[in-house]
Design a protein that fits this description.
By secondary structure, the chain is α/β, with parallel strands linked by helices. The strands form two sheets. It has a four-stranded mixed beta sheet with strand order 1-4-3-2, covered by helices on one side. A four-stranded mixed beta sheet has the order 5-8-7-6, covered by helices on one side.
């Protein structure tokens, strides 16, 4: 199948009970700026203008578990963040408000949790 138009991924959305707070966390973590801020939707854009992150209010948000456990809310997606210095990146993430997950499945990856419990991976490029 050929496409008659170009499709461009622009934003990944994360559900949250507090869009502004989670956007500020990821803004500090990634060095990105807020492009749009409304009460129920905040959009961060990368410094190069490529894919951004959007945070949408979900009043019924349930914090995911990592690793997955039967009968508990599982993560639906996670972010992969490439780094050149894993210890320094982890220190930065923790200073921004992340939590190091108890379960770490790989030597060259650190699984962290954002303030709302979304897992994200720092991986050595």
């Amino acid at each position: 199948m050929t496409m008659s138009t170009r499709l461009t991924l622009t934003t990944v959305n994360l559900d949250t009970p507090d869009p502004a707070a989670l956007a500020r966390f990821y803004g500090r973590l990634l060095g990105w700026t807020i492009e749009v801020e409304e009460p129920d939707d905040v959009i961060l854009r990368s410094t190069d203008g490529s894919v951004g992150l959007s945070f949408q209010r979900e009043p019924a948000y349930v914090r995911p578990t990592w690793p997955a456990e039967p009968g508990r809310q599982q993560m639906m997606a996670h972010l992969e963040i490439g780094v050149e210095d894993l210890p320094a990146a982890l220190e930065h993430a923790l200073a921004c408000g992340a939590t190091l997950a108890a379960y770490q499945p790989q030597e060259d990856v650190r699984v962290c949790l954002d303030p709302d419990g979304h897992p994200f991976c720092l991986w050595l490029r």
